[in-house]
Design goal:
By secondary structure, the protein is mainly alpha-helical. The protein has helices at about 70-85, 105-115, 130-140, 150-155, 180-185, 195-200, 205-240, 245-255; strands spanning about 65, 90, 100, 160, 190-195.
Length: about 260
């Protein structure tokens, strides 16, 4: 599906007025936006997928936390250039994804999508996923040539989860700044959460996911408080030896080893 049209091929998302075009600013390296078709260059400003402002400095696939990101937008930024070149991506907390438009309108769209089936044998499809992670997965699938070997291999490199299961709860995560709601939607525009939509069309694990997320956040809070104390002690230790190593520091700065 050509990216110039934006949005998503998924009937649950179709009709959104949100336009999402992948773009990489000059001089920046992006793990997700990748190369840009010539017809899209310079269309919309966007930032690379980064933790903060720099590229990831850890091994393995990037872990992307997607709460607060519009569905079609994050999918369109990630699908064509993140998986096809051979990269692996793990998407977590899919229940927090946003869909532009108010909740009632999006629910009517999804209920209309649920009625689309094969009359003689509904078990042959189309298949209607209820979990937020699978709804997002289907949105990405619609933006890939998934019926080719290349597209199938690309789709296998994508992992999607509701909540943050182990071992990803103890690993660094990042967002896609170019797809944030505050960047893509006006403050007055209405939006819906994918988790609530999924719950009202048959997803049974909203309460369980919320409970597990609350436990994870408590553990993460304790870990962060401990980390802050250690960082404070480290700064104090550096300050204590600053006078003793000053002459060595000056020599290192002179030769450009320290800045």
């Amino acid at each position: 599906m050509p990216l110039a049209k934006g949005g998503s091929p998924d009937p649950a998302i179709k009709g959104s007025s949100l336009l999402c075009l992948p773009y990489r600013p000059q001089g920046s390296e992006s793990m997700v936006t990748g190369s840009i078709p010539h017809r899209l260059r310079g269309k919309t400003p966007a930032q690379p997928l980064t933790p903060g402002s720099t590229g990831p400095a850890w091994p393995g696939p990037p872990r992307v936390a997607v709460p607060g990101l519009p569905t079609g937008c994050v999918a369109s930024l990630m699908s064509p250039s993140a998986f096809l070149p051979g990269r692996k991506v793990v998407v977590v907390r899919c229940e927090g994804i946003n869909i532009s438009g108010n909740f009632y309108r999006n629910k009517l769209k999804y209920l209309a999508f649920l009625r689309k089936r094969m009359n003689t044998n509904p078990s042959r499809g189309p298949y209607h996923f209820r979990a937020p992670s699978r709804i997002f997965w289907r949105t990405v699938r619609g933006m890939l040539p998934h019926k080719t070997k290349r597209g199938q291999a690309a789709l296998e490199r994508l992992k999607v989860f509701d909540g943050i299961p182990p071992p990803y709860d103890k690993r660094k995560r990042m967002v896609v700044p170019a797809a944030l709601k505050v960047v893509r939607l006006k403050p007055t525009r209405k939006f819906a959460f994918l988790g609530r939509l999924a719950h009202e069309v048959g997803w049974k694990y909203q309460a369980i996911t919320s409970t597990l997320e609350a436990k994870r956040k408590e553990k993460a809070k304790l870990h962060y408080n401990k980390k802050k104390k250690l960082m404070k002690l480290q700064k104090q230790a550096e300050k204590n030896v600053e006078g003793k190593i000053a002459r060595y520091t000056d020599v290192l700065k002179q030769y450009g080893i320290l800045v």
